Amino acid sequence: MGWLSFTNITCFVFFIYFGMTFKSFYEMFYPLECKINEKNSKELCIFSIKNWQKKFTLGFCIPNYIPKSNYLDCAQFFGFDEFDLKNSFSKDVPIRLPRKTRKNGTLAAYVLLGAKTQLNDPKRIVLSNNVLYKFVELSKYKVNDTEKYVNLLEKSKILGETEPLTKQEKKPITHLITSLNILSLDTEINFNRREVPHELIQDIRLTEKNEYLPIFRIDRLSIKDENYQPVNDSQTEYNLTFKHNPSSIGKIRFFKQFEDSIQAMKEYGFNDAQLKELTSLFTDTNINLILLTFIVSAFHLLFEFLAFKNDISFWRKRKTTVGLSLKTLAWRAISQAIIFLYLLEEETSVLILVPSGISVFIEIWKLTKAFKVSISFGSVFIPSLKFGEASKEEKESNDYDSIAMKKLSYLLYPLCLAGAVYSLVYNTHKK
Asked: What pLDDT, in 10s, does the model give residues 39-83?
């Protein structure tokens, strides 16, 4: 029964998984709406609030203190009358820095969406059902050390100060975020109470008329290290770019799931560099391109896995190296090991690092097959390597291989040397 081969079973399982994943993505972007019929009463549905533009507004509050009750006292308050679910806007907000923030302290804020009558007194904002609020930390402690890359010949820094940082300067200091992005749901969807997407449960706030306020979220994935700037004692004000972007329900749900995944990966030991690379992939790319990338990546993993399988099958059946270049095999193994070590040193994503590591082991195993290496243990259990004898035909192939590699080296060695010299003189390298 040839159709029950390992390759066919693998492809069948892959396409089932791919189909279920695609179905989940589709339901994420196009959820079922609540429809009133004989089986579904009106009480089970929650509706988007009507004429909300005339009643609600968006605000940004710097509190005097973190509230312990339902009242919010704003030291600074900024309103955004231009807020509209259907349109994007960007506005610079000049924030006065409190003395404690300038003295290496923290700074926090609230993004508010509520009735205009409830946000007209910034000194006493009641956090009721008609006010939806999100808390965000504007500050972060970071080491202001940008001296990361140097020229190996001149030892000159391409970033930061020309003098080495002192121990005092290497202490974590307060950095403030320079840009804050708000995502809001741009469509009116009627939800079934029993089937509200779990990603939106915390964002839905119901009114007395069984209607929910406009849904919005802080785009925390767009907050990156390069968006922070250091604060000094003499600085009394800084500008925060406040952005609003309408988004589909699928994008909001997808970003929420991704935020939860990032938090889970941190608990599993992923470092900041790996997470930064992964986050940039999703936040700096159009959502449609992300889906296309997912499809291409999925098929790439499938073909790579099948390539590993076929490579291993070929070499398991191979009894002779006639017609094969042993030097090419050796150089390939060395190259794969160097690439793997480079990816490991650059803290590349595990999705790339793991296949590269598997390739290294396969190439080393192929070398042991090509050179007929066997391991034997002596009387004291010390392993020793033994190399098998090459046949007459294999020796003839090796002679031709040596001649070809010798002629090829006349071109390769000068190119490698020129590339190394160019990199040493003109490029910068990680310390």
From this structure: 556 677 888 877 666 677 888 999 888 777 778 888 899 988 878
The C-alpha atoms of residue 181 and residue 243 are separated, in whole angstroms, by 5
> Mind listing the pLDDT tens digit for each residue in 286-315?
777 877 877 887 888 888 888 888 888 888
Residue 207 corresponds to which tokens in the numbers above?
């009114």
Please state, in angstroms and rounded to a whole number, the distance separating the CA atoms of residues 150 and 156.
6
How many C-alpha atoms does 138 have within 13 Å on its Cβ side? 27
C-alpha to C-alpha distance for 182 and 359, rounded to whole angstroms: 43
Ramachandran assignment for 372, one of left (phi > 0), alpha (psi -120 to 50 degrees), beta (any other): left
Place of tokens 């504007």: 138
- If DSSP codes are grouped into helix, strand and coil, which group holds residue 64? coil
Contacts of 70 by beta carbon, 8 Å cutoff, 6+ apart: 126, 127, 128
DSSP 136-186: EE-EEEEE-----EE-TTT--BSSS-SSPPPTTTTSEEEEEESEEEEEEE-
